[in-house]
């Protein structure tokens, strides 16, 4: 039996989730491809999208990619993995990582006031006398107090830098007090682009190119979309009055940091693979353009957590997600997919979506060339299909020597019927929480119900100091959890056992 995670296994002890049944044999991605293709074909037809390209990144490479439809209605050039699409707000992830890289290099601190790098903000009037002044991290996590500015912000892409400077100096009306609530702001990410430029001493686009795009080999990606090679350019359209109309091609401007990047699927897959490579934490060489630990930091959501439905066809019946905004990503815990990082992109002429599943090393993304036609539904549905097909392999948490030794002693204690084998291994709280005599009685009660437990399932550790486990007994099964204490030497602070109901075997 393959457990989704030690955490999920531990939840079974409280009855929070049902035990998992034996899973069917996994499909290959090639076998699943027709189902994925059908999802995106339906999206393209239903949303009147000229062209779509979508891909699955798995095990560090672009494992599946397909283009459907056309780049340009006039010449009917087919969409390919090299077609160039604007990714709109998916650009924010590049901006966020640029800020974190500058932090790593000592060029700024996340708790610095934003006005330290954008002096035109110093004269702003805040909504209340007790309002905190905006920090760099507030802009990263959309808690600067600005109003949600879709679609206004999208049309500011072409704003010249000098005009943006005057806009900042004039001040902006606030929607709420900073740091009081999450509210998505393109303007806030435009300010982050100005911070990147002023802290690095080079234009925002040059910094992203030098720090991220070039090191990752994203040679086709850039910000001045109208100057891209026309043979590969996916022109953006709107669907209006039952026909397609080309949207204006917007040149690079001051709001580029919130949504101006243009990529191909082949290029974007390199970015997705790089991000996923940050998980899990490990000892091998850290040679990326940004440290792995810094990449993992993007998953730290703000304190403003919401409960939401999963995107896609399974959303209505799936477990609710706990979601927050991290740093350029919407971060959610999903009971099937684990940790997810996702972001959409909506723009005049374009819609896009990306979702990462770091627990499994898998990402799904899609790019389209119709205004605000975000392919989030088929992207998430493809991920769910991969999960059902057994293609999302959970990266095993290694069993630490301390856990292995403590678990062996705990099994010996159950076999002996008392705590003798745990002598010298118990934390000071253990016998205060339950006496040795009561543990002896508990072992006797469990043995009367399920008997001896000669075999076990592989451990499902939740870290280096805890594990869930399952024992296979003569008359049933026992689920258990072992929790170590932060002592030197390591000791056991808690041991929990529960008979598994027969129907949950």
Summarize the entry for a quick read.
Helix content is 29%, strand content 20%. The protein has 505 residues and is an alpha+beta fold.
Structural summary, described in words:
This protein is α+β, with helices and mostly antiparallel strands and 505 residues long. The chain contains 14 helices and 17 strands. It has helices spanning 6-12, 29-46, 92-104, 136-140, 161-170, 186-200, 204-213, 256-259, 265-276, 292-297, 376-388, 401-416, 430-433, 436-450, and strands at 51-58, 61-69, 85-86, 237-240, 243-246, 262-263, 306-308, 321-325, 330-334, 338-347, 350-357, 362-368, 455-456, 460-463, 466-473, 476-485, 491-499. The strands form 4 sheets. Strands 2-1-12-11-10-9-8-7 form an 8-stranded antiparallel β-sheet, with helices on both faces. Strands 13, 14, 15, 16 and 17 form a 5-stranded antiparallel β-sheet that branches. Strands 3-6 form a two-stranded antiparallel ribbon. Strand 4 (237-240) and strand 5 form a beta hairpin. It is globular, with a radius of gyration of 26 Å. The model is unreliable at 1-22 (pLDDT under 50).
Task: Describe the protein's topology.
Layout: H1 6-12, H2 29-46, E1 51-58, E2 61-69, E3 85-86, H3 92-104, H4 136-140, H5 161-170, H6 186-200, H7 204-213, E4 237-240, E5 243-246, H8 256-259, E6 262-263, H9 265-276, H10 292-297, E7 306-308, E8 321-325, E9 330-334, E10 338-347, E11 350-357, E12 362-368, H11 376-388, H12 401-416, H13 430-433, H14 436-450, E13 455-456, E14 460-463, E15 466-473, E16 476-485, E17 491-499
Antiparallel strand pairs: 1-2, 1-12, 3-6, 4-5, 7-8, 8-9, 9-10, 10-11, 11-12, 13-15, 14-15, 15-16, 16-17
Helix pairs in contact: 2-11, 3-6, 3-7
